[in-house]
């Protein structure tokens, strides 16, 4: 478990950078940490990536009173780790109102719903753009919709992979509760860790889904069990994971 460190200017600089960007990869987070150390602790040893969880734990202990948190997310579609600044005090859609018009927030909600309700949580770009016709109130042009999608991708809300729009790491970190409340039937939880599986491994023969990392850990424990080896699901997951 990460340790709680004394709160310093390094922590303040790291928090400021992550909250400004919203979503940063683990590599970006390390660069931010090194920069902060270089500015405020020039006489100390250069930190390693292993320092980041401790820094984040200390920051979260400080900002939890404000219903804020930096969440760690392993984003399975690209096998990359991210740190996401989350404000947990109200609805994530309500927070968008300070940056976007009511119609633009409506468009965001429509894209969110469409991806949540799709079988693999991914939709084609043309589907996204056609959602502009469902916006109530002032219309949003398709040109503006494309601009918004590009902006939301930079912020980590959505990610375009293989020509399809997917949930991004910020949705995984910040919208988990919202999606499970509003689209309960479409959301699934990993049978092993009980957390939401936005993009996991699905069995061909049953509705269960698993995080890839959870299943890798689980399979390693079962590899020496003869009974487990005879399980069709076990053999399928061995092929997928290894």
UniProtKB/TrEMBL annotation:
<dbReference type="GO" id="GO:0006281">
    <property type="term" value="P:DNA repair"/>
</dbReference>
<keyword id="KW-0233">DNA recombination</keyword>
<keyword id="KW-0862">Zinc</keyword>
<dbReference type="GO" id="GO:0005634">
    <property type="term" value="C:nucleus"/>
</dbReference>
<feature type="domain" description="Non-structural maintenance of chromosomes element 1 RING C4HC3-type">
    <location>
        <begin position="190"/>
        <end position="222"/>
    </location>
</feature>
<dbReference type="GO" id="GO:0008270">
    <property type="term" value="F:zinc ion binding"/>
</dbReference>
<dbReference type="InterPro" id="IPR014857">
    <property type="entry name" value="Nse1_RING_C4HC3-type"/>
</dbReference>
<dbReference type="InterPro" id="IPR046349">
    <property type="entry name" value="C1-like_sf"/>
</dbReference>
<protein>
    <recommendedName>
        <fullName>Non-structural maintenance of chromosomes element 1 homolog</fullName>
        <ecNumber>2.3.2.27</ecNumber>
    </recommendedName>
</protein>
<keyword id="KW-0863">Zinc-finger</keyword>
<dbReference type="Pfam" id="PF08746">
    <property type="entry name" value="zf-RING-like"/>
</dbReference>
<comment type="similarity">
    <text>Belongs to the NSE1 family.</text>
</comment>
<dbReference type="Pfam" id="PF07574">
    <property type="entry name" value="SMC_Nse1"/>
</dbReference>
<dbReference type="GO" id="GO:0030915">
    <property type="term" value="C:Smc5-Smc6 complex"/>
</dbReference>
<keyword id="KW-0227">DNA damage</keyword>
<keyword id="KW-0234">DNA repair</keyword>
<keyword id="KW-0479">Metal-binding</keyword>
<keyword id="KW-0808">Transferase</keyword>
<dbReference type="InterPro" id="IPR036388">
    <property type="entry name" value="WH-like_DNA-bd_sf"/>
</dbReference>
<dbReference type="GO" id="GO:0061630">
    <property type="term" value="F:ubiquitin protein ligase activity"/>
</dbReference>
<dbReference type="InterPro" id="IPR011513">
    <property type="entry name" value="Nse1"/>
</dbReference>
<dbReference type="InterPro" id="IPR013083">
    <property type="entry name" value="Znf_RING/FYVE/PHD"/>
</dbReference>
<keyword id="KW-0833">Ubl conjugation pathway</keyword>
<comment type="subunit">
    <text>Component of the Smc5-Smc6 complex.</text>
</comment>
<dbReference type="GO" id="GO:0006310">
    <property type="term" value="P:DNA recombination"/>
</dbReference>
<keyword id="KW-0539">Nucleus</keyword>
């Amino acid at each position: 478990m990460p340790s709680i460190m004394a709160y310093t200017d390094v922590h303040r600089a790291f928090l400021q950078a992550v909250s400004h960007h919203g979503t940063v990869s683990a590599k970006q987070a390390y660069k931010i940490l090194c920069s902060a150390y270089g500015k405020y602790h020039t006489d100390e040893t250069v930190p390693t990536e292993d320092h980041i969880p401790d820094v984040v734990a200390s920051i979260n202990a400080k900002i939890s009173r404000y219903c804020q948190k930096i969440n760690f997310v392993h984003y399975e579609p690209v096998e990359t780790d991210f740190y996401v600044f989350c404000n947990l005090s109200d609805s994530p859609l309500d927070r968008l109102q300070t940056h976007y018009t009511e119609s633009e927030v409506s468009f965001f909600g429509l894209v969110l719903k469409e991806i949540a309700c799709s079988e693999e949580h991914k939709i084609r770009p043309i589907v996204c753009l056609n959602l502009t016709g469902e916006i109530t109130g002032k219309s949003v042009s398709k040109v503006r919709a494309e601009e918004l999608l590009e902006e939301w991708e930079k912020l980590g809300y959505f990610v375009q992979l293989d020509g399809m729009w997917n949930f991004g790491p910020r949705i995984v970190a910040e919208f988990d509760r919202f999606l499970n409340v509003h689209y309960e039937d479409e959301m699934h939880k990993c049978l092993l860790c009980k957390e939401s599986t936005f993009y996991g491994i699905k069995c061909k023969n049953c509705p269960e889904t698993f995080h890839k990392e959870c299943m890798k850990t689980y399979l390693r424990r079962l590899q020496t069990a003869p009974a487990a080896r005879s399980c069709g699901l076990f053999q399928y997951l061995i092929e997928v994971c290894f």
